TrEMBL record:
SUPFAM superfamilies named in the record: EreA/ChaN-like
Cited Pfam families: Cofac_haem_bdg
Biological classification of the source: Bacteria, Pseudomonadati, Thermodesulfobacteriota, Thermodesulfobacteria, Thermodesulfobacteriales
Haem-binding uptake Tiki superfamily ChaN domain span: 29-169
Protein name: Haem-binding uptake Tiki superfamily ChaN domain-containing protein
Highest taxon above the source species: Bacteria
Protein backbone atom coordinates (compact mmCIF):
# COMPACT_ATOMS: atom_id res chain seq x y z
CA UNK A 1 0.00 0.00 0.00
CA UNK A 2 2.80 2.43 0.91
CA UNK A 3 4.57 1.70 -2.37
CA UNK A 4 1.38 2.54 -4.26
CA UNK A 5 1.00 5.82 -2.37
CA UNK A 6 4.62 6.79 -3.06
CA UNK A 7 4.24 6.03 -6.76
CA UNK A 8 0.92 7.89 -6.83
CA UNK A 9 2.43 11.07 -5.41
CA UNK A 10 5.39 10.94 -7.79
CA UNK A 11 3.05 10.41 -10.74
CA UNK A 12 0.85 13.27 -9.52
CA UNK A 13 3.82 15.63 -9.37
CA UNK A 14 5.18 14.44 -12.69
CA UNK A 15 1.83 14.98 -14.40
CA UNK A 16 1.76 18.59 -13.16
CA UNK A 17 5.41 19.10 -14.07
CA UNK A 18 4.77 17.81 -17.59
CA UNK A 19 2.21 20.60 -18.04
CA UNK A 20 4.06 23.31 -16.12
CA UNK A 21 7.72 23.18 -15.06
CA UNK A 22 7.35 26.52 -13.31
CA UNK A 23 6.43 25.09 -9.90
CA UNK A 24 7.54 25.37 -6.27
CA UNK A 25 6.80 22.85 -3.51
CA UNK A 26 5.99 23.57 0.13
CA UNK A 27 6.01 20.99 2.92
CA UNK A 28 4.59 21.16 6.44
CA UNK A 29 7.96 20.65 8.08
CA UNK A 30 9.55 22.74 10.89
CA UNK A 31 11.56 25.83 9.85
CA UNK A 32 14.80 24.15 10.97
CA UNK A 33 14.41 21.65 8.12
CA UNK A 34 14.98 24.32 5.47
CA UNK A 35 18.73 24.19 6.07
CA UNK A 36 18.71 20.38 5.88
CA UNK A 37 16.82 20.55 2.58
CA UNK A 38 19.22 23.05 1.08
CA UNK A 39 22.28 21.09 2.22
CA UNK A 40 20.83 17.88 0.81
CA UNK A 41 19.96 19.46 -2.54
CA UNK A 42 23.52 20.83 -2.74
CA UNK A 43 24.97 17.40 -1.80
CA UNK A 44 26.55 18.80 1.37
CA UNK A 45 25.01 15.99 3.43
CA UNK A 46 24.32 12.38 2.50
CA UNK A 47 20.90 10.80 2.08
CA UNK A 48 21.30 8.91 5.36
CA UNK A 49 22.29 12.10 7.20
CA UNK A 50 19.30 13.87 5.72
CA UNK A 51 16.87 11.09 6.68
CA UNK A 52 18.21 11.04 10.24
CA UNK A 53 16.55 14.41 10.83
CA UNK A 54 13.09 12.94 10.24
CA UNK A 55 13.09 10.44 13.09
CA UNK A 56 11.04 12.69 15.40
CA UNK A 57 8.45 13.73 12.80
CA UNK A 58 5.32 11.72 13.51
CA UNK A 59 2.50 13.77 11.96
CA UNK A 60 3.38 13.08 8.32
CA UNK A 61 4.00 9.97 6.25
CA UNK A 62 7.76 10.38 6.13
CA UNK A 63 8.30 7.79 3.40
CA UNK A 64 6.00 9.77 1.12
CA UNK A 65 7.61 13.08 2.10
CA UNK A 66 11.06 11.68 1.30
CA UNK A 67 9.82 10.48 -2.10
CA UNK A 68 8.49 13.96 -2.84
CA UNK A 69 11.84 15.49 -1.85
CA UNK A 70 13.75 12.97 -3.98
CA UNK A 71 11.54 13.79 -6.96
CA UNK A 72 12.09 17.52 -6.43
CA UNK A 73 15.85 17.09 -6.16
CA UNK A 74 15.98 15.03 -9.34
CA UNK A 75 13.92 17.63 -11.22
CA UNK A 76 15.65 20.65 -9.61
CA UNK A 77 12.38 21.95 -8.16
CA UNK A 78 12.65 24.27 -5.16
CA UNK A 79 11.19 23.00 -1.86
CA UNK A 80 10.33 25.17 1.13
CA UNK A 81 9.25 24.37 4.67
CA UNK A 82 6.13 26.10 5.98
CA UNK A 83 5.70 24.27 9.28
CA UNK A 84 5.48 25.80 12.72
CA UNK A 85 8.34 26.22 15.18
CA UNK A 86 7.69 23.27 17.51
CA UNK A 87 9.13 25.01 20.59
CA UNK A 88 6.86 28.01 20.11
CA UNK A 89 3.87 25.74 19.51
CA UNK A 90 4.57 23.81 22.73
CA UNK A 91 4.94 27.03 24.71
CA UNK A 92 1.50 28.17 23.57
CA UNK A 93 0.05 24.70 24.15
CA UNK A 94 1.32 24.69 27.74
CA UNK A 95 0.89 28.35 28.72
CA UNK A 96 -1.21 30.05 26.04
CA UNK A 97 -0.32 33.18 24.08
CA UNK A 98 -0.14 35.06 27.39
CA UNK A 99 2.86 32.91 28.33
CA UNK A 100 5.01 34.25 25.49
CA UNK A 101 7.57 37.00 25.90
CA UNK A 102 7.21 40.29 24.02
CA UNK A 103 10.01 39.20 21.71
CA UNK A 104 8.22 35.93 20.92
CA UNK A 105 4.90 37.71 20.40
CA UNK A 106 6.56 40.12 17.95
CA UNK A 107 7.52 37.19 15.72
CA UNK A 108 3.97 35.84 15.45
CA UNK A 109 1.63 36.54 12.55
CA UNK A 110 -1.58 38.40 13.38
CA UNK A 111 -3.67 35.86 15.30
CA UNK A 112 -7.47 35.97 15.30
CA UNK A 113 -8.80 33.49 17.84
CA UNK A 114 -12.44 34.21 16.95
CA UNK A 115 -13.32 31.13 14.90
CA UNK A 116 -16.40 29.57 16.60
CA UNK A 117 -16.84 26.58 14.23
CA UNK A 118 -13.20 25.60 14.64
CA UNK A 119 -13.36 26.07 18.40
CA UNK A 120 -16.46 23.87 18.59
CA UNK A 121 -14.76 21.18 16.49
CA UNK A 122 -11.62 21.25 18.64
CA UNK A 123 -13.74 21.12 21.78
CA UNK A 124 -15.29 17.85 20.60
CA UNK A 125 -11.81 16.41 19.98
CA UNK A 126 -10.60 17.68 23.32
CA UNK A 127 -13.48 16.16 25.29
CA UNK A 128 -13.00 12.79 23.58
CA UNK A 129 -9.29 12.56 24.37
CA UNK A 130 -7.84 11.95 27.82
CA UNK A 131 -4.42 12.80 26.42
CA UNK A 132 -5.53 16.25 25.24
CA UNK A 133 -7.26 16.93 28.54
CA UNK A 134 -3.84 17.11 30.18
CA UNK A 135 -3.76 20.63 28.72
CA UNK A 136 -5.92 23.67 29.33
CA UNK A 137 -8.49 23.85 26.51
CA UNK A 138 -8.02 27.57 25.81
CA UNK A 139 -4.27 27.06 25.51
CA UNK A 140 -4.87 24.05 23.23
CA UNK A 141 -7.21 26.12 21.06
CA UNK A 142 -4.77 29.05 20.85
CA UNK A 143 -1.95 26.69 19.84
CA UNK A 144 -4.02 25.20 17.01
CA UNK A 145 -5.09 28.64 15.76
CA UNK A 146 -1.47 29.81 15.91
CA UNK A 147 -0.44 26.86 13.76
CA UNK A 148 -3.02 27.65 11.08
CA UNK A 149 -2.30 31.40 11.12
CA UNK A 150 1.42 30.64 10.84
CA UNK A 151 0.91 28.23 7.94
CA UNK A 152 -1.33 30.69 6.11
CA UNK A 153 1.14 33.55 6.62
CA UNK A 154 4.05 31.49 5.29
CA UNK A 155 2.00 30.42 2.27
CA UNK A 156 1.13 34.07 1.62
CA UNK A 157 4.81 35.05 1.72
CA UNK A 158 5.79 32.26 -0.68
CA UNK A 159 3.05 33.36 -3.09
CA UNK A 160 4.37 36.92 -2.94
CA UNK A 161 7.96 35.82 -3.59
CA UNK A 162 7.08 33.33 -6.34
CA UNK A 163 4.12 35.15 -7.84
CA UNK A 164 4.76 33.76 -11.31
CA UNK A 165 5.00 30.14 -10.19
CA UNK A 166 2.49 27.47 -9.27
CA UNK A 167 2.76 26.61 -5.58
CA UNK A 168 2.03 23.00 -4.59
CA UNK A 169 1.60 22.40 -0.87
CA UNK A 170 1.69 19.06 0.94
CA UNK A 171 0.01 19.22 4.32
CA UNK A 172 -1.91 17.13 6.83
CA UNK A 173 -5.37 16.23 5.57
CA UNK A 174 -6.91 17.11 8.93
CA UNK A 175 -5.91 20.77 8.47
CA UNK A 176 -7.73 21.30 5.18
CA UNK A 177 -10.86 19.13 5.12
CA UNK A 178 -13.03 21.79 6.76
CA UNK A 179 -13.54 25.29 5.37
CA UNK A 180 -13.00 26.81 8.81
CA UNK A 181 -9.52 25.33 9.11
CA UNK A 182 -6.60 26.37 6.85
CA UNK A 183 -8.90 27.52 3.99
CA UNK A 184 -10.47 30.07 6.39
CA UNK A 185 -7.08 31.56 7.26
CA UNK A 186 -5.99 31.66 3.61
CA UNK A 187 -9.20 33.42 2.58
CA UNK A 188 -8.70 35.91 5.42
CA UNK A 189 -5.46 36.87 3.65
CA UNK A 190 -7.32 37.23 0.35
CA UNK A 191 -5.86 33.98 -0.99
CA UNK A 192 -8.85 32.69 -2.91
CA UNK A 193 -7.44 30.95 -5.97
CA UNK A 194 -6.52 27.52 -4.65
CA UNK A 195 -7.62 23.95 -5.11
CA UNK A 196 -7.61 21.25 -2.43
CA UNK A 197 -6.83 17.69 -3.52
CA UNK A 198 -7.55 15.04 -0.92
CA UNK A 199 -5.63 11.82 -1.59
CA UNK A 200 -7.36 10.02 1.31
Amino acid sequence: MLLFVKIYFKNFLQSIYNLNTNIVLALDLPPSFQKFLEDYFENKISESQFKENFKNIDYLNIEVVLEIIEWAKMNKVKVFTIGTDSELFLKILNNGLKGLSQEELSKLPEIDILNPPYKKYLSSLFMASENLQKFNFENFYEAQVFRLEDLAEKIKKLLEIFNSKQLIIFIEKDLIIKNWELPFYLQKRNILDFKIINFN
